[in-house]
Amino acid sequence: MRMINCPVCLKKVDIALINRHLDTCTEQSESAPPPSAPAAPTETAPEPTSQPAKSVSSLLTGTKSAKKSSYKYGNREKRTFSDSQSLSSDQEVNTSIEIVDPEPKARKTAPADELRLLKAQAKLPLAERLRPSSLEDYVGQEHLVGEGGILRGFIQNDRVPSLILWGSPGTGKTTLARIISHATKSRFIELSATSNGINDCKRVFEEARNEDKLTKRHTIVFIDEIHRFNKAQQDIFLPHVEKGTITLVGATTENPSFQLNSALLSRCKVFVLNKLTSDELHRIVSKALLVTNKTRKLVHNVPILRFNKEAIGYICNIADGDSRSALNLLELADSHFMTNYSLEPGKHVIEVDAEQLRDVLKRTHMVYDRVGDAHYDTISAFHKSVRGSNADAAMYYLGRMLKGGENPLFIARRMIRIASEDVGVLDDTCLPFAIATYQAVQFVGLPEADLALAHCAVKLARAPKSVEIYRAWNELNARLDSEPEFASASIPLHLRNAPTKLMKEIGYSKGYKYNPDYKDGRVKQEYFPEQIGEMQFLTGQHLGLTPDPDL
């Protein structure tokens, strides 16, 4: 049963009974005596309209004046760039005013409306169909939008500051921005850095200034994938954010510290959206399964799906905190079981378990961004696994990088670094081995060079480790950077080169002892500048001395 408000008495009435209720309601309003009031000599009461039925019909059918340049979404006004374009009556199906045909014979029932809506929505991606429009329906990010969450307070009080939403794909950044659009009284404009340019932004800024002058109405600008704008393009937002012409809401999957202009970043609050937990994904997938089954039954007339607990858990696990990915996997399974199923006589439900899903989703669902955080996170995990002498973990991360499309030369370069940084003097063969691996990748490429990379990774992981050179080098560079007198100390004359007669006459190279001329090459000779004296950076200690309390 679907309830709507009567436009005359404002009571909630079943949509199937609205026409009968309207007849009764309008008769009562016409026959009711006017309220008594003292006569006013200068005013007269307005005459009641002679055509009440016409106004009711107009309300129910969503008729509107051709002069209107905006439409209602829920209880707020939503403006677009093309304000001159009015919506047709077909486009108003999803508004707060339901379309009801005034003729009883042509009246549509609630199931027919639901079926029509389902058919229209069936063409949309499942993630878009399930996108929540309020904080009550939003799943995840309890630290931001849960009870007492800082962002929840901003949204409910309609005091949203300029902010950046940073999180992995499918964590709800765009959804959160659209929830702000429904909750705010400000004008809300949505742009995407992938499809809109600087000229579009300038036009929005100009509209925002005019809107503020004429109506005192503020403008919120949402930029999806804001990191796609280069830092020069991002500069255009600075004066408008600083002056308060607009409130900027940006969404990015990349680390804002690296991808966003520091001046812009200092004017925005950064909120980190975490990957969704398995329980949160379970709630989303369960709700999506209900919508999917309703569409299967009413629109496509095929048996519904029943996923057991392990099947839903399998989708949640391989989605890795990405709600959009989880819904895409469910859609893939839905499409597969449209035709690929067999039922026993008398049964109308397709039972789906985790093993069947593995067969459907044959390729491992892997998320790897060659230029984003996954790129740096995975190579970091690989390096630390080699340093920790865990050859199996090193191969695992190497495999993830190669399967994800990482540049093999990038991996080979990192292993050359590892050979000196982590193995060092305890196995001098690792450095030429790593260089040979780099050359092998250059010569033969992938897939033939995959074993060369794995061979090198295992050799480095199993080699004895020494960070003596690495630590000594870091200590030296720290002093060179922080102590000007240390970096500029005069080189002893006997160590200086003397290619000319003049240099020899002023003492260059004088007194230098050529080591090969002496027994065992040992001589008494100063090598450091006199100002800093003898120093020792290499201690002969290859690793630390602190025991791990967890061992």
TrEMBL record:
A Pfam family that the UniProt record links to this protein: AAA_assoc_2
Family annotation (InterPro entries): AAA+_ATPase (IPR003593), AAA_assoc_2 (IPR032423), AAA_ATPase_RarA/MGS1/WRNIP1 (IPR051314), ATPase_AAA_core (IPR003959), DNA_pol3_clamp-load_cplx_C (IPR008921), MgsA_C (IPR021886), P-loop_NTPase (IPR027417), Rad18_UBZ4 (IPR006642)
Composition bias type Polar residues, residue spans: 54-64, 82-96
A molecular function GO annotation: DNA binding
Gene3D superfamilies: 1.10.8.60, 1.20.272.10, Classic Zinc Finger (3.30.160.60), DNA polymerase III clamp loader subunits, C-terminal domain (1.10.3710.10), P-loop containing nucleotide triphosphate hydrolases (3.40.50.300)
Domain UBZ4-type: start-end pairs: 3-30
GO CC, one annotated term: nucleus
Nucleotide-binding listed as a keyword: yes
Methyltransferase listed as a keyword: no
Protein origin, superkingdom: Eukaryota
Compositionally skewed regions (Low complexity) per UniProt: 39-53
BP GO terms, sorted: DNA strand elongation involved in DNA replication; DNA synthesis involved in DNA repair
Keywords for the protein's UniProt record, in alphabetical order: ATP-binding, DNA damage, DNA repair, DNA replication, Metal-binding, Nucleotide-binding, Zinc, Zinc-finger
Spans annotated as Disordered: 26-96
Protein name as it appears in the record: UBZ4-type domain-containing protein
